[in-house]
From TrEMBL:
Gene Ontology cellular component annotations, sorted alphabetically: plasma membrane
SUPFAM superfamilies per UniProt: L domain-like
Protein's name according to its UniProt entry: LRRCT domain-containing protein
InterPro entries listed in its UniProt record: Leu-rich_rpt (IPR001611), Leu-rich_rpt_typical-subtyp (IPR003591), LRR_dom_sf (IPR032675), LRR_TM_domain-containing (IPR050541)
PANTHER family in UniProt: ANTIGEN BSP, PUTATIVE-RELATED (PTHR24369), CHAOPTIN-RELATED (PTHR24369:SF210)
Domain of life of the source: Eukaryota
Keywords per UniProt: Leucine-rich repeat, Repeat, Signal
Length: 297
């Protein structure tokens, strides 16, 4: 515990890429000025309860690529880290996130939780994080997106949920993160265009690739006039008809490769005058006569 004693001016500590399994309580007791701690790529499986307490100047904490479980990360782990901006917990063994885990982290801007085994997130777990702009929950075991899950994330602009087990998304799931610009829902088990998307009027890019979406109707993309990129590769989408894409007046790039499209009705792209690139490879098209005549770009 005394190895850093006397280093009262220490600002940055990098002990990444080692074989650390645990750290002694009180290790940082005299390092009150520390701004950045890098502990990624170790074999940490425990964090003593008071290890990070009162590090009120800490801005960056990287604990990625370790073996930390949800038994180790609880409502006391990050107490008092009132200035923390970046927290990386990716590539660990977390299975759940409780409501009070991040309670003191109101300055946090980037939270990386990808590649864990998170299957349960308590409602309002992200509520204190009103300055968060990037949340990565990719490569976990999330099945359902509830109406309360993203409460408080008013400033969120980028959300990654790819490579989970998502089957349904509550229609009100995104009502409290309506500033979202980028949303990645690829590689899940989604069967329809989520109704919840209609809350995201500032969304720029939407990835729904590698799901089980079989089709969509007029109004599926309502309020998404700002959307410039839509990725729907590798789904089960059938024929395209007039009106289906008409709400997407700002669309520039559309990826519909590897679907089951046999026909595209003339007029399908009539309102998508900004389109610059369309992928339709890997479908069952036999005739596209006149389909693209309105696409000057």
């Amino acid at each position: 515990p005394n190895s850093l004693n006397g280093l009262i001016s220490l600002r940055v500590l990098n002990m990444s890429n080692n074989r650390l399994e645990s750290l002694p309580d009180g290790l940082f007791a005299s390092c009150r000025e520390i701004r950045e701690i890098y502990l990624h790529n170790n074999t940490l499986y425990e964090l003593s309860r008071g290890l990070l307490h009162r590090l009120e100047q800490l801005l960056v904490l990287d604990l990625s690529n370790n073996q930390l479980s949800s038994n180790q990360i609880d409502d006391m782990t990050f107490v008092g880290l009132i200035r923390l901006i970046v927290l990386n917990l990716s590539h660990n063994a977390l299975t759940r996130i409780d409501a009070r885990t991040f309670k003191d982290l109101s300055f946090l801007q980037i939270l990386d939780l990808r590649n864990n085994s998170i299957g349960f997130i308590e409602d309002n777990a992200f509520l204190p994080l009103y300055n968060l702009h990037t949340l990565n929950l990719a490569e976990n075991r999330i099945h359902h997106i509830t109406s309360q899950l993203f409460n408080g994330l008013f400033g969120l602009s980028k959300l990654n949920l790819n490579n989970n087990l998502i089957v349904n998304i509550d229609p009100l799931a995104f009502r409290n993160c309506s500033d979202l610009k980028e949303l990645d829902l690829s590689s899940n088990a989604i069967q329809y265009i989520p109704e919840a998307l209609s809350e995201l009027s500032f969304l720029k890019t939407l990835d729904l690739g590698e799901n089980q979406i079989s089709g969509f109707s007029n109004g599926s993309f309502k309020n998404l006039q700002q959307l410039t990129g839509l990725r729907l590769i590798d789904n089960n989408i059938g024929n395209l008809t007039k009106g289906m894409l008409w709400d997407l007046t700002g669309l520039q790039v559309l990826n519909l490769a590897k679907n089951k499209i046999q026909q595209i009705e003339r007029g399908t792209f009539d309102r998508n005058e900004q389109l610059e690139a369309i992928r339709l490879d890997g479908n069952f098209l036999s005739d596209v006569n006149g389909v693209f005549q309105t696409l000057a770009n």
